[in-house]
Each structure stands twice: as C-alpha cells, then as structure tokens.
Write a structure and sequence with these properties.
There is one protein chain. By secondary structure, the protein is of the alpha+beta class. It is built from 14 helices and 40 strands. Strand 11 (189-194) and strand 12 form a beta hairpin. The longest helix is centred in the N-terminal third of the chain and has 18 residues, at 100-117. The chain is globular and about 100 Å long.
Length: 752
C-alpha cells in the first residue's frame, strides 16, 4: 500500500509543479531531475524493505519426540588421556522432566546448590548447567554466551513488530538472558541482546556456549588457544576505543560442537575512549553505551556510560572540512578508488540535501571498502544499495560515482530513512545501532552504525579533528514531538519515534540553542514555508524545530555548546510516603519513613533533600541525596526518626525526636536544588508514635507446652502493622505473625 501511495505522489509532482499542502499554505517542492526522470522506478527506493523470502521464518527441528527435558551440565573433556588440553564438549545428564518449567526450576536450584558448595569442581558444574531436548540440543542454559546460527544468512527477531523487527546476520555472538517454553515443544523462546536491542528468537536459531565450555575448551589437544572467545571493548595506547566482535567460523557444525567450529574476533575503532576506561582492561557492553567489567553485565560491575560521538551524531549536520580537504584525504585511499575527486559532490549533497559530507564519505568507505569493492568498481555502487545478504549480486548500477552519492543522499537518506512521518525505516537520523538510527533497517550488520561512526572519527582525527564534538547531542527520554515553534500549542512537525510505534526512546537530536523551556534542534526533515515533507530539499538554517527540554537528556556537549542562558529546570511530582500518613510511623523498631517521588532535573548532580519540621515550624531533621542523572528519575529518601545536625528544636544530634502513644505531629517536604535554582514540594503531615502495643495471651506459665495450643492476641492503640514474634531458648525465631490494623484499639488473635 505504501509503495503505491508513493508512486501516486511522484506522478502528481511530475505533472503539477506546485500543489496545495494545506488550506492556507501553497508552495513549490523542488525535485532533482533524477527523481523526475525516473519516477517509474520510485517504488524500488521507497519500498526496499528486506524481502520476506530472505528472512528465516521457518520452524526447524521443533517436532516433539517424547517431549522430555533433561537437566545436564556441559563440560570440556580430553579426547585421549595423553592430551594436554580438553577439546571435546560432553554432557552429564542429571534429571529428566516432562515439562520445561520443572526442568528450569531444577536447573536454577542446582545452580544455587553447586555454587554454595564453594569448590572448583562444583563451580564448573554450575557454570555448565543446561536444559537439553530429546535430540540433546541445548534449549536453555544458566550461564554462557550464544551465537546466531541458522541455515539462512539473516534472521528476523520476533517481537510482534512485523516489518519493524530488526534483523541480524548469523554467526554473531549475542548476550543471553534466558528462555521460556509455553507449549512444551522441544525448542524454547530465548531472550537475547545485541547492539542495543533485546528480543526473542527460537532456540533452534542459536548455538549455546555454556560458561564451562567457553572457559575450558581449546582448539586442539596441543594448543593453548581457547576455542571460544567473547567479544569486548578495549582501549589502545592512543586512547582509541576498539570493539572486538566475536563470530563463529562454521555454525553449520555448531549443534554437535565439532572441530570445524570456533569463534574468532573482528575488531574496529569506535571513538575516542572516555576517561573512566583504562588501557589494560576488557570492557563489555550490549548497547555500546553502558560499559561493564563483567562479561555478563552485572550491575555491580558497571563503570560508566559513553555515547560515541559520530555514532550518535545526526547526518543532518555540516562538516567543517572543505571539498579540497576531503579530496586530500581521499587521495590517501588506494589508487583505484571510485571516490577520487568526489569531495565537491559530497559538499554539494550536504548543502542541497542536508547530509553531512564527512559522514556520507564514511558511509561510502564502509560499504565500498573505501571505493574499491567490486560493486564500486563495476557498478559505481558506493553504498551497497540493494545488495541484500542473500542476493548481493542484485545490487543497483549507477552511471557514475557522483550519481550514486546524490541518489543515496537524497533518495535513501533524506527522503526515506529521515522521513519521520511516513517511512517505516525512520528510527532517527544518526548511524546508530539496532535500536535507533539508520542501522536498524539499512544493514543486517549489527555494528554498521558503530563502524561508520568509527570511520568518521578516524577520518576526522587524521584531518585535524575539526569536527569532533562540534555539536551538542541530546537523546529523547520519552516519545517526543518536534514542533514548529517553542510553544505547547505549536504545530507538530513530526514525532521522534517510528511511525508504527511509540518507540524507540533514545533518538538523538542536535541541539542548536534554547528558547524558554524548549531546545532548538536541527530538524530531521526538510522545512519549507513552515511545513515538513519528505520531498523538501534541505536548508540547514531554516530546517529547525523545538522540543521540550524535559523530553531530552544531553549526552555529548559540543564545542559550540548550548548557550549559557539555559535555565535550570526542576520539578517534583507523584510523592508517596510510607508508612502511609493515615496510620503514622514508629521509629526505632527496624522501620524507617520513606518519601519517594518522580524527580526531574535538566542538570546533573541536583540535590534532593527531605526536610522534617515540628508544629512550631522548627527544623528537626534533614536527609539528602544527589540525583546523578538528568531527566525524570524515581528517587527515594529515608528518615530513621532521629534529629540531625543543625536542627532548630534543641535535640541532640542522633537522638530520637519526640514521640507519643497518641502520635506526635510533624510535617515533611522535599526540596530539589542546583547551584542557581530550587523547588519544593507541598508539605505532608505525619504522626510519629512510640511503641505502645498491648499483648494479651492465655499464657499462665513461663513456657509454652509442646502440642498445646496457645492463643495470642494484640490490641494496639494506633493503626498500622504490628507483630507477634516467639523465640526459643537459644534466641532463634520460631514464630512470626504480622497484623495490619486500620483502626486503633481493635483486637486480633492467632493460635500458636
């Protein structure tokens, strides 16, 4: 349907030079000659979604045999006793189950049991725990890495998004998050992560490498080289950040772990390394933004967040380099490059179609091997256009390199991938990853955007670093609209999300300035006469829009940073107090007052403070935390009922404030502040109680007799939660009963 619609539009434009966009706005859209002359071929450009026959949609090997599920552990074994290193993968079956769920529970319990034994042997068993089907194929594992390995070249990840589902090539390592099995089939639905996305795929599409196999299996009996190596990020001595990607060399034999299968590392530069990274450490990241020292991304191992500059920079920006600068750089490429002398073309498409010349050059460098690929040499195809993974020889031919650059910039980027209003491929205007940007749909390579960003970084570095950190980059923290003017009632240009979805969150924008509560941003679509349209040519000065500041988090500050008049914006909302003010708070007995809320700040390190006052408005306590992130976050502060230093009520620091059996009244509020601004919440009344619970029992002796029932009851003089706890002679808790009272002086009983 969409292809047909686009053909109609082109014919109208061809026959009628100007048309009515709205009742009050009439303007002429300028269309390059190559679009007018080739309107009949328009469908191949606006409808070039990956053909469905290339996607792996078949269920293979899913027919159940006996529907048995085996909990086992995988381990590395020697082929011969005299071998120096283990090269084989074997399984020791432990238990058999008729349902996947029961097998999963058993695997989890065994993992805990083995880990608690705290021995090398049982740790290896724990790290090798898996669930096997009747064909002895792994369909789930407790700990390890997985690789996409199917007979098809590429695979579409299934999340019920239809055409919006990302696709990736086989062989690549993915982060594994576990499996579920609802129909007791001999395959499972496995949650995996790669290049910024988490999604589900069948276990039939994966090769599982349990941790015990990953760490203990070698290439040969005499080689000390490990058979499998996980991917990682690394900083070289020049402080450049590299990504080492792990891929399988022969997934066709992966199901049996045969000798022909192994993993290798492919590396490429990403960006300048952030200051929190060292040169002697491996780092791990699923999204290329959040970095950890643990290959399983445990939260305690996170060391920082870093957005690679060119990977997140919009193509709608401008380079500082001239055509002469670009040609000088291109002259360092191999002599047969088809990019020779294309500096002028690159600057022209930047000025006319709004595509950054340096980033477009980097795009071509990746897709054409710096202008030397067979498609570039024989077809003048510098961008792999229509070179699908399954049928690469169907790549389009162009009459010249110039023609290819022009059509790629205008047809494929400006009119398609950056058409937020009507093209399914819009996920933002940056190179990106598999969650945001051009990488989501342009190429199956999960690191296509990261590689383009790295090439741009390298080209810029070799030419004098004139472009690096030129612009300030923000990302959306929720679905947001780009508007014509900085006002809530302004016309909406487009939505910063895929047209079929209210996602993804995290689409980058280039911030040009501020206007009140709005950021002025470079528009992803060309603006003309107050209208955006995918056909519009691009004027950088006029193609701007506005986004509420509260919708954007700044992730990279540019040399031409946002003007200093950017006001601090702070808000406090959705306050919740626990225990509820309706029944009060009893300090000193293992419970604290908790005040939480949704806190917004457009500046890092804003201070959030809980203040407690008595009825005389005297400060009795204050507790504070630092809000480390910008944007809206959920924050909570606890108060233990003690006075703090500097209180105005005369309490000794650290002593409990006045309490009573009927409840002493206090007031609490939150205060959010930066160095130049502060906001506060409204005041909330609370009551602070002393412990005043009455215990009535029918106990007549000092000991409770065995096999004799004893009734215990509680009648508190205040609402809230109370407990009856009984301990033995060794002070061990043997009974614990909680009672919730909506009203004071009501009685509840239990039998022990």
């Amino acid at each position: 349907m969409k292809t047909g619609k686009r053909i109609i539009w082109v014919l109208l434009l061809f026959l009628i030079p100007s048309f009515n966009i709205s009742a009050n706005n009439i303007y002429t859209i300028e269309i390059p000659d190559f679009v007018k002359n080739e309107a009949k071929d328009e469908s191949k450009y606006k409808g070039d979604e990956l053909p469905k026959e290339y996607l792996n949609n078949k269920d293979k090997n899913t027919k159940a045999v006996n529907k048995n599920f085996y909990v086992a552990y995988a381990y590395a074994a020697k082929n011969k006793s005299e071998d120096k290193y283990p090269t084989l993968v074997k399984f020791n079956k432990l238990k058999t189950f008729s349902t996947f769920e029961s097998a999963k529970n058993s695997m989890n319990n065994l993992y805990t049991e083995y880990k608690n034994k705290n021995s090398v042997e049982y740790t290896k068993r724990a790290n090798g725990l898996v669930i096997l089907n009747d064909r002895e194929k792994i369909i789930d594992m407790k700990l390890g890495k997985a690789y996409i390995s199917v007979n098809s070249t590429i695979i579409s990840l299934d999340k019920n998004h239809g055409s919006s589902s990302p696709y990736i090539p086989t062989n690549h390592e993915v982060f594994y998050y576990g499996a579920e099995n609802k129909n007791d089939l001999t395959s499972s639905a496995c949650k995996i992560g790669i290049s910024g996305i988490t999604n589900y795929t069948s276990s039939d599409n994966l090769t599982f490498i349990p941790e015990a196999v990953l760490s203990d299996t070698y290439l040969s009996a005499s080689s000390s080289q490990k058979k499998y190596t996980t991917g990682y990020y690394y900083v070289n001595t020049n402080r450049d950040l590299y990504h080492y990607v792990s891929v399988l060399t022969d997934p066709s034999v992966s199901e049996k772990y045969e000798n022909g299968e192994k993993s290798t590392l492919q590396s490429f530069i990403v960006d300048k390394a952030p200051s929190f990274m060292k040169t002697d450490t491996k780092y791990y990241s699923m999204d290329g933004v959040n970095f950890y020292t643990s290959k399983y991304l445990s939260s305690s191992s996170k060391i920082g967040t870093h957005y690679p500059y060119f990977t997140y920079l919009s193509y709608r920006t401008k380079t500082n380099y001239t055509k002469e600068d670009l040609n000088k750089r291109i002259n360092t490429y191999p002599s047969n490059t088809k990019l020779k002398n294309q500096g002028s073309t690159l600057i022209d498409v930047q000025n006319k179609y709004g595509i950054n010349a340096l980033m477009e050059l980097s795009f071509a460098n990746l897709e054409s091997g710096y202008g030397t690929s067979s498609y570039a040499i024989n077809k003048n195809n510098l961008f792999g256009i229509a070179a699908y993974d399954e049928t690469p020889d169907n790549a389009y031919s162009f009459e010249s390199p110039k023609k290819c650059i022009e059509e790629h910039a205008y047809r494929h980027l400006s009119r398609a991938y950056f058409d937020a209003n009507s093209d399914f491929r819009y996920y933002g205007p940056s190179p990106g990853n598999k969650k945001i940007g051009v990488n989501v749909k342009y190429a199956s390579d999960p690191y296509h955007g990261e590689k383009i960003g790295g090439i741009a970084y390298t080209q810029d570095k070799n030419m004098g670093s004139k472009d690096y950190e030129k612009y300030t980059i923000g990302i959306t923290n929720k679905t947001a609209n780009v508007m014509e003017k900085p006002s809530s009632g302004s016309k909406v240009f487009y939505k910063l999300s895929n047209k079929n979805l209210n996602e993804p969150v995290g689409i980058p924008v280039v911030i040009l300035g501020t206007s009140g509560d709005y950021y002025k941003v470079q528009s992803d679509m060309g603006v003309k006469s107050g209208n955006v349209h995918f056909e519009n040519l691009y004027d950088h000065n006029g193609s701007v829009g506005y986004i509420p500041k509260s919708s954007i988090d700044i992730v990279r500050k540019g040399k031409s940073s946002v003007p200093a008049d950017t006001a601090d914006k702070l808000t406090i909302s959705s306050i919740k107090i626990s225990p509820s003010p309706s029944y009060g708070f009893t300090p000193g007995y293992g419970n604290n007052l908790k005040v939480e809320g949704k806190i917004y700040s457009n500046k890092k390190n804003a201070k959030l403070e809980l203040q407690v006052y008595n009825t005389k408005k005297q400060l009795v306590a204050k507790k504070s935390i630092t809000k480390q992130k910008t944007g809206t976050t959920s924050e909570k502060i606890f108060w233990d009922g003690k006075a703090t230093k500097g209180n105005k009520a005369g309490y000794k620091t650290g002593s409990y404030v006045k309490r009573s059996s009927s409840g002493t009244k206090y007031m609490v509020k939150l205060l959010l502040s930066t160095s130049s601004k502060s906001v506060k919440s409204k005041e909330y009344n609370i009551k602070v109680y002393s412990k005043a619970t009455k215990l009535n029992t029918n106990i007549t002796k000092t000991a409770i007799k065995r096999k004799a029932s004893t009734t215990l009851s509680m009648k508190p003089n205040r609402p809230g939660t109370s407990y009856i706890r009984i301990y033995d002679s060794k002070n061990r808790l043997v009974f614990n009963q909680a009672f919730y009272y909506k009203k004071a002086n009501t009685k509840q009983s239990t039998v022990f």
